[in-house]
Amino acid sequence: MSFTKSVDTKKKLLLNQSANILTMLNLGSGSMALILIMKGHASLAAGLIFLAAICDMYDGKVARNLNISSDFGKQLDSLADLISFGVAPALLIYQSILFQYSIAGILLTVMYILCGAIRLARFNVTTFTGNFQGLPIPAAGCLLALFFLMKFYIPSVFFMFILLGLSVLMIGTFKVKKI
Amino acid sequence: MSFTKSVDTKKKLLLNQSANILTMLNLGSGSMALILIMKGHASLAAGLIFLAAICDMYDGKVARNLNISSDFGKQLDSLADLISFGVAPALLIYQSILFQYSIAGILLTVMYILCGAIRLARFNVTTFTGNFQGLPIPAAGCLLALFFLMKFYIPSVFFMFILLGLSVLMIGTFKVKKI
């Protein structure tokens, strides 16, 4: 009986933390993607960015459905998003393509990360009314990973404009409906 | 007169944003450090982590002294800290030393980043009473950068324990007095 109780408690604890576990998987995938980029496995890293996006899609849903949303979870989510959809895709594009543009490539990479952080910080202090303000960073990160996979069909110089465009769209003040 | 007024307005705007500008410099330094790590300039990257720490030391002080603290600034600060003192030092140690330990090196690197994110998320949802709970991530990041600079005097395998130790210390519940 005591054993059943202990299993039940552990199950409840796991269920309570399920959304945060998904967020940690998002962050873990993003961190692994960074290591793979450094090791030269860029396509695998792009795959991990998509995996992070899947985890990110479900952590909020799980939290709402199980009624276990928490401020801690929201903070963790933003931190994970900056790694998985800010730093990882920016470095993926830099390491594979933009490295050839010297200072311009570096500046655009850093700018994308800065704009992603501004987007996330603004989102965290704004009351959510069903619409996002500016392009959400997971969308920007997935687009970058997708463009990376299509890199043989896109002239290299276009990636500078893609990075610039996504940076501007993230800090834009237009409304985007939540899917 | 109109020109003086315009200059005054711009000066005021710059002053109001001075703390956030320092936070952006922190994040910019951390992002640049990541690029330098990928390019193999590890010592320069360590220098940028220290520069990020200096910016991080002053952004809060400037915000309090000028009475311009904001929730947006606090959010931006945490996001910057995760890059500059979480991701950058972890990848610095991985790329220079821990890469030789295969899966163990990867797991410890990812764990350090995860623990850093947990530390930051917990801090953001806790009312600050003058004491930090657990080792602050800027201290952990600077220690890692310092150990990296002393790497010729430290056996490589010790870096696994250093990463593990700092990870545990960050998520610990002991109190650390703010300097």
What does this structure look like?
2 copies of one chain form a homodimer. Chain A has 7 helices and 2 strands. Chain A is mainly α and about 180 residues long. In chain A, helix 2 runs parallel beside helix 4, helix 4 packs parallel to helix 6 and helix 6 packs antiparallel against helix 7. The first copy, chain A, is globular, with a radius of gyration of 18 Å. At the A-B interface, helix 2, helix 4 and helix 5 of A face helix 2, helix 4 and helix 5 of B. Chains A, B: Pfam families: CDP-OH_P_transf. Chains A, B: Its main location: membrane.
Q: Spell out the helices and strands of chain A N to C.
A: HHHHHEHHE
Shape of chain A: globular
Q: Mean pLDDT of chain A, rounded to whole units?
A: 92
CATH C-level class of chain A is Mainly Alpha
Spatial extent as radius of gyration of chain A? 18 Å
Distance between the termini of chain A: 45 Å
CATH architecture of chain A: Up-down Bundle
Strand order of the largest sheet of chain A: 1-2
Oligomeric form: homodimer
Domain unit count of chain A? 1
Total number of helical segments of chain A? 7
What's the story with the biggest beta sheet of chain A?
Answer: 2 strands, antiparallel
